[in-house]
């Protein structure tokens, strides 16, 4: 039997090769393999006569087209996917018997789908929303699906409320507006009617809801699971993904502008990074709570609206995932991939988390209707590497051709095969938990604490992050038409922090609330802050995108030296000018323009560099687009750099309270609030070091009066 259970040593690619169409095939055929002689003109009774029903190629082609769209996911409809692999750092035998978490030398294939929650398939990438982070592990024991989000908590505690929440968050029923947005009455009406949403709303209003890219986004399992080892000992587990590039976000104004310039911004970023070999990497972490410690915390560990603060339950990083291949076909893979929370392997089990318990039913039920029946596991992207052997035979879209006459157990005609496996043979054994109690619709008392962790989140934010949260409330709640709901939102969040509530009230046109007794709890958890967390890095420019603004007559030596330094550090540079084509330097060399001001914008880049060249700068100073490019990047707190005459363009942009390199100190590099300047265009070594260090820090929130910049 062990031989039957052995996993084919071929890669996932090899396993699926039989399902791939050869793009080099010479002849066009029907779905039955019949070569087609004409695919442009339907069969008619005479050249001007009616089309004949017997034209089987026409009927097949149109019928397939008519049925090409499958129902989109109700939530997480807008997604992007990638293939890769996972490796554990060391055997996890103490915690779990799951085989893919034991051998550091084994690469387990994975497919990851990132997504937004609320929008339809055609919505924009950079909307304010929670992001899905779903991972399918093709393990030797079967498929394991870790279906998580980029925010560690959820809006509701019990899955029975999920339809209500989604109905409230989706476009309103009477007019189907707004798209991919929670800035409307029904969502906020739901919020004020359900105080359990407050903690997640705080995360949603933060920068976490507008990530810079999927490659710089954390992931969380959200729910409480169990690890079970070979001896049957269980422990409560929460799962984490940490991006090795650090955790970075867009600012709200930037995100809105990107939605117009490039609605596919996150999808394109992921695709291009993998195509260029900049493979996204994430460390896999676990938080562990021993069963005997289940009740020692001031929160209920089964409550999906609560985090386990890392100061109380540290994260142990146990492995790394690398995404190294884009899908061959978006529909066949990214759209048809089916994640089910119930897909687990021996050594991983569930808790009594009421949100998780409902998800165990909902995900499977969703795939049955979306993918047309019970055989969706046979679609290539969903097929496990582990061999399948059971008594299922029929149903929509059955692809396996089963031999033999027996499809039941026990049986005597087929030697009682296939038979159940014991635990020693790799059979899945559910964790033996003692469960008793009256049938009741109730939740534990700790579930009813709706505000403590929302306060914890607010207290943990840096000052810039707090300002961004307030701005987010002003936009989201400012779009609410009903003044009673706006007032109720302010009163609800007064339970979190009085100053926060006063700030919200000021922006949404309602009266400020009175201070509530007992709301000023000063406990903090720095790791929930992107600015303060130990889980991010600010020491690399790898994969950052740098815009270089030039015109004819630019300083070629300066551009070349800076580009070499930036590219050498792993960044990518784009030449931006008024028109596409070739530009000539002051010394006769040429550079090709990658983007013009219509196709690009500062919001699509992480930093901006302006080289010298008197003719080039004289031209740029007369171009409003170039000045706007500088102002907008400055307003969004991004690094700016300029050498030689390029400093004059930054000065022409009237950036407030910034010191620039002076005319008389040609060798001196001045770095002020992320603006790096040098008058020396020939020797850029010191400038490069300072500019690279500035880009690595990502943003400069200490810039004062940036709202005075016209951008």
From TrEMBL:
Presence of keyword Transferase: no
Protein family membership: Belongs to the catalase family.
Species for this entry: Methanosarcina baikalica
InterPro entries per the UniProt record, alphabetical: Catalase, Catalase_AS, Catalase_clade2, Catalase_clade2_helical, Catalase_core, Catalase_haem_BS, Catalase_immune_responsive, Catalase_large_C
Lineage: Archaea, Methanobacteriati, Methanobacteriota, Stenosarchaea group, Methanomicrobia
Cofactor(s) recorded in Swiss-Prot or TrEMBL: heme
Listed name of the protein: Catalase
All copies of domain Catalase core, residue ranges: 29-417
PANTHER family: CATALASE, CATALASE-B
CDD domains linked: catalase_clade_2, GATase1_catalase
Keywords: Heme, Hydrogen peroxide, Iron, Metal-binding, Oxidoreductase, Peroxidase
Top-tier EC class: oxidoreductase
Entry's EC annotation: 1.11.1.6
MF terms in GO: catalase activity
Catalytic activity: 2 H2O2 = O2 + 2 H2O
Coiled coil (residue ranges): none
